[in-house]
Write a structure and sequence with these properties.
By secondary structure, this protein is mainly alpha-helical. The chain has one domain. It has three helices and no strands. The longest helix has 15 residues. The chain is globular and about 30 Å long.
Length: 80
């Protein structure tokens, strides 16, 4: 599973390609509140949790191509 920084980088790449930037911190908070692991955008392969409300968007992020290096400055990423 990717760490938060890598998941955020993936979301930024997705935003550059599509114009849509998911709020990973908010989604992780909602997942925790609902009793789930805060895994949105962090999986590295197809996820078996097809019942998750963010499943489709998360799998779209999994399919986002990798770019070398990080795109998000450390100061913009909340500490976990």
């Amino acid at each position: 599973m990717l760490d938060f920084r890598a998941a955020n980088d993936r979301a930024v790449r997705h935003a550059v390609q599509t114009g849509h930037m998911p709020d990973i911190s908010l989604i992780h908070s909602l997942q925790r509140h609902e009793g789930f692991t805060p895994c949105f955008g962090r999986v590295t392969e197809p996820c078996p949790r097809s019942h998750c409300r963010w499943f489709a968007e998360c799998m779209t992020l999994v399919e986002t191509p990798e770019w070398p290096g990080s795109l998000v400055p450390k100061t913009l990423i909340p500490s976990k």
